[in-house]
Amino acid sequence: MLRLKNIIFSIGFLFRPVTPVAVSFAFLVLTCVLLVVIIINLNESTKAYQVLLSILTGVTASLLIAIMMELYNNYRFNTKRQRELREYFRQVASYKINQSSIIETNAKDEYDSVLGSGRSYAVFSQLKDIIPNLREVLNHRDYLYRLEIEEIDDILSDYEDLVKIIWIGVLSTYMGFISGETNEAATHDDKLNADHEHMDLEGDGADAYESIDESIMDYPELFNFLKKEAMHYVEKKYEPNFYDDGPKQLESVIEKAIFYERCIFNDYFEVTDARCEFAKSMDDEEDLVSRAPLKNRKFEFRSNMISHACGNIDKAMRKLHRRVAKEPYFWVIASCKENN
């Protein structure tokens, strides 16, 4: 049964993409029908009959050869495409299995559940496998179909938005470390002063000042991670413009945390399906956050937007998965049923 299905999917290589073959075949049928109808109504002894018969023979032969060549080129392209995109197919084919496994494990693992739950969190957990794979496959974009490139570009765009949301919140602290402001109290005071500029969102006075306090120091694991990475960066860089390169370097630091140290984001944001659905239903950015104190609003905004980005990535990955499910050999993994 497996072998038969692989043969069927391999034969399908002949018709991918099907548009050129279908157009050529449709043109062949229409042309032949039109010429046959005209020829039937002509006398066989006339010169027009002989000419049209010759045209019919030539057009039929030419279009049949064109169709056969198109089928051959399709098969050759798709077999080579399988070899070139092997790792990409393998990763996308196993996407649903990985999703189900992470969701089930996370439901039993109280430690991971602190950061999130559901399909959106499962996507966040797989970013270390998804993103490098998709970046690499774009180097072979000549073997990707247009719809696949569009979905991959959307995934990478949503991922960049996700990184940028975290980047905005930790940039001032990270740059403070690079510039030598390693004193935690100074960093805390700088953050309070920055927050004080936004006091008009909540009102004036001491109560408002206290209500908007959010510092990276409130998240010790994240704070220590940023400090360690900043110090490592300073030790490695000796060029005069290394401070100017810091913001770009921070993107790599955040990516490292997302891929290998995601637990440091516990309490800084959470990734859930409920937040993803909430963000989808909102048209206005201000609707994505509550009218709670600024500290809580920042948490809500980060959580909603990151969950939304993960939800978009999940949707695009499912579309890619459905395409890989039609590939010979890889369909076996892709066809495994989800438990959730």
How would you describe what is shown here?
It is a single chain. This protein is mainly alpha-helical and 340 residues long. The chain has 2 domains: 2-84; 87-334, no CATH class. Helices cover 72% and strands 0% of the residues. The protein is built from 15 helices and no strands. The chain has helices at 2-11, 19-40, 47-84, 86-93, 95-108, 110-113, 118-137, 146-178, 184-196, 206-211, 220-236, 246-260, 273-281, 294-324, 331-334. Helix 4 packs antiparallel against helix 7 (118-137). The longest helix has 38 residues, at 47-84. The model is unreliable at 182-212 (pLDDT under 50).
Short description:
The chain has 340 residues and is an all-alpha fold. The chain has helices spanning 2-11, 19-40, 47-84, 86-93, 95-108, 110-113, 118-137, 146-178, 184-196, 206-211, 220-236, 246-260, 273-281, 294-324, 331-334. It is elongated and about 100 Å long.
Write out key terms for the chains shown.
mainly alpha; 2 domains; 340 residues
What's the helix and strand layout?
Layout lengths: L1 H10 L7 H22 L6 H38 L1 H8 L1 H14 L1 H4 L4 H20 L8 H33 L5 H13 L9 H6 L8 H17 L9 H15 L12 H9 L12 H31 L6 H4 L6
Helix pairs in contact: 2-3, 4-7, 5-7, 7-8, 7-14, 8-11, 8-12, 8-14, 11-12, 13-14
Q: What coarse outline follows from CA principal-axis ratios?
A: elongated
Mean pLDDT: 83
In angstroms, what separates the terminal alpha carbons?
27 Å
Binned strand content: under 5%
Determine the number of helices (DSSP H or I, runs of at least 4 residues): 15
Task: Please tell me the total number of domains.
Answer: 2
- Structural class category: mainly alpha
Query: Rg from C-alpha positions?
Result: 29 Å
Number of strands: 0
Oligomer classification: single chain
Helix fraction, binned, reads over 70%
